[in-house]
Amino acid sequence: MSEAEPLIRVMALHALAYCERLFYLEEVEEIRIADAAVYAGRRLHEELAADEGDFISLTLESETLGLKGKVDCIRRRDGRLIPYEHKRGRAKAGEEKPEPWPSDRLQVCAYALLVEEHTGIPIEEARIRYHADNATVRVPVDETAREDVRKAVVRARELSRSVERPPVTDNERLCLRCSLAPVCLPEEERLARDPRWDPVRLFPPDSDRQTVHVTDNGARVSRAGETLVITRTDGRKENFPIREVGQLVLHGYAQVSTQAIHLCTHSEVGIHWVTAGGRYVGSVASGASPVQRRIRQYEALRDPGLSFRLAKRLALARAEGQLRFLLRASRGEDRASSGVQVAVEGIRAALAGMGRAEGIDALRGHEGVAGRYYFSGLPALLRDDLDTRLQFSGRNRRPPKDCFNALLSFGYALLYRDVMQAILAVGLEPAFGFFHQPRSAAHPLTLDLMELFRVPLWDMPLIASMNRAQWDPDSDFAYAGPQVWLSETGREKAIEVYERRKEDQWRHPVTRYSLSYARLIELEVRLLEKEWTGEPGLFARMRLR
Ligand code: SF4
């Protein structure tokens, strides 16, 4: 064993015995999710520390064993030392009596070896207390146990040196209780391997943390304990407990204190700055440690074959989404006279061209044509009696020249920021994409992924809100010569329409389970990563119905 190699945490051996992929995600990629079970485990240890007089938590490490860890408790019985490990759950049901779970056994034996080395007193037995069924299980620290610990340390070191994630476990039941299932996506990987697989949803359907937008230019965001406090220019204050916040978005020149930034980064809350017009400025996000992921992303996307296959799937998904929306929104209408039919036929021809395209330039050309036909069909979806200032007669941007384009641009900027947040949370590099070229300040991978969501997350709710006469051309917009921007009330309305849409539930046609659009963005980023880390084939298969 090399002395230069870092010590392995005993807790990591527990993960290793449970599932090698779990060990890799936690120890090598440094992804740790504190779910309800993890919090309950921490509480148990705090209660024990408070209640039990002889609960001594001891941190030990050994170069010889290659291990370090914190022993829950050591008791002296008849002159012998006995390490104890406390578990919140139940013991494994044995034929005659309760037995330890293999991962718990390995963990407590590793602690026993650490205690033995540090005290010089031979240890023959360790114990595990399972609190859910009030059972204490004795674990012999014999030669077999010692050999198991040694082998586990060797395997842990091998995995730590690898840049390849181990495959998902064959034992699906382990995944049901695994805190990293939403990151690992084992069921989706099984589905990619076998299309007949009926996946159980282990990915959370919804986010219990909200996005907080600060649109008031003079507002200040500060910290009070574990709470973000937003003080508006008129003195009004709003409090947001940090555990309820997923992202903080500062529009325009709102200020944020260093203390609030610290609180956000420690709580994995992304902070995003956007201009008053909605253009993305930058982010602070403490996502997963990304080194391994980015190495794999660079290696994968440097392969022109893979990049082209992904680009084709993405372009098809976007154009089919546009086509289906036009068809759906014009159902029962006279498409020929409204102009929708021309757009529909143009997109169909472009889709056929994309299917035949053999190079990225040809693909981009067909995708551009589909986009132009799509926007040419959109005006027909708006009601005829809208104020002329709200009508749409073609896409323009930088800067927008009419109300509809101002809304389109603002909504896409909101979407850009959400996609960016998901990419950073997954640990990918937003600047390294496969379809868009790095020509502007915008990150190509973020622009790539946005293509999947423009229609369902913004175009559809925007057209619906227009047809519900939700927009006031006088108070919701600001006119500066030929340029049109959203006023503060307009921005607040747009944010409300967009955030509400994110909460809508949608049944993913491939994974066949329902989830909110907010979660769908992250799911697709994770499925993209699977194109080069696991079982490929599920990314960009989502389609509007
Ligand atoms: S979800 Fe399953 S395969 Fe993935 S790390 Fe957890 S136990 Fe292993």
Would you give an account of this structure?
- It is a single chain.
- The chain is built from 19 helices and 19 strands.
- Strand 10 and strand 11 (237-241) form a beta hairpin.
- The chain is of the alpha/beta class.
- The longest helix is centred in the middle third of the chain and has 26 residues, at 304-329.
- It folds into 3 domains: 8-184, Lambda Exonuclease, Chain A (Alpha-Beta Complex); 210-268, CRISPR-associated endonuclease Cas1, N-terminal domain (Ribosomal Protein L15, Chain: K, domain 2); 291-533, Four Helix Bundle (Hemerythrin (Met), subunit A).
- The protein is elongated, with a radius of gyration of 28 Å.
- The strands form 6 sheets. The chain has a 4-stranded mixed β-sheet. A 4-stranded mixed β-sheet has the order 8-12-14-15, sandwiched between helices. The chain has a 4-stranded mixed β-sheet with strand order 11-10-9-13.
- 46% of the residues lie in helices and 17% in strands.
Cofactors, ions and other ligands in the entry: iron/sulfur cluster
Major sheet details:
4 strands, mixed
Name the CATH homologous superfamily of the largest domain.
Answer: CRISPR-associated endonuclease Cas1, C-terminal domain
Number of domains: 3
The assigned structural class equals: alpha/beta
The name of the CATH architecture of the largest domain is: Up-down Bundle
- As for the CATH topology of the largest domain, it is Four Helix Bundle (Hemerythrin (Met), subunit A)
Strand order of the largest sheet: 4-5-6-7
Runs in which pLDDT lies below 50 for 5 or more consecutive residues are none
Helix content: 40-55%
Shape: elongated
Could you name the CATH class of the largest domain? Mainly Alpha
For the CA atoms, what is the radius of gyration? 28 Å
Average pLDDT value?
86
Quaternary structure = single chain
